[in-house]
Amino acid sequence: MTDESIAPDATRAAVPLTDRVNVEPAILNGMTSTEATWIGLASMLAYGMAMGLLVAITGLWQLLLVALVATILTLWFASLRLQAMKRDRPDGYYGHAIHLWMVQRGMQRARFLQHEGYWSLGRSLHLSLSSPLKPKSELRAQPSTPHPTSS
After folding, report:
1. Which of 5, 7, 28, 56 is the most buried (most CB within 10 A)?
2. Where are the beta strands (DSSP E) in the chain?
3. What is the mean pLDDT of each run of 10 residues along the chain (151 residues)?
4. Could you tell me which residues come within 8 angstroms of residue 51 by beta carbon, excluding any fewer than 6 positions away?
């Protein structure tokens, strides 16, 4: 078998795609497993407490299944919402947006520099547009004009 018999597309298929190497893989409509875990735990806790209260009041233990179904539906609709939030944004965008929101409300310390306006170094810079290749003595020297000599 010669090299000519191998199609160029066949060699490209063997090359791994590296554009998503450092990104957590999506498992449900663009939602990562970490996001699904946090949303699932929060919704299961909320629905479990609500349905637990209803079970205590009514005595119908079957209501606990409602918490399970509601958690699955919450995960599905949250994944659709996250998919819309992540569309046309770079990886980690909304995580930074949530962090910025929490910093603005004083719930968390800033991990990034936040400054609006001009930066000051605390001193003035004396910059010149003159060429650094010419010594300063040449810059100050004026071209000499011939003086009329008195005869």
Report:
1. 28
2. 26-28, 31-32
3. 56 67 84 91 95 93 92 95 89 85 90 79 68 61 59 52
4. 63, 64, 66, 67
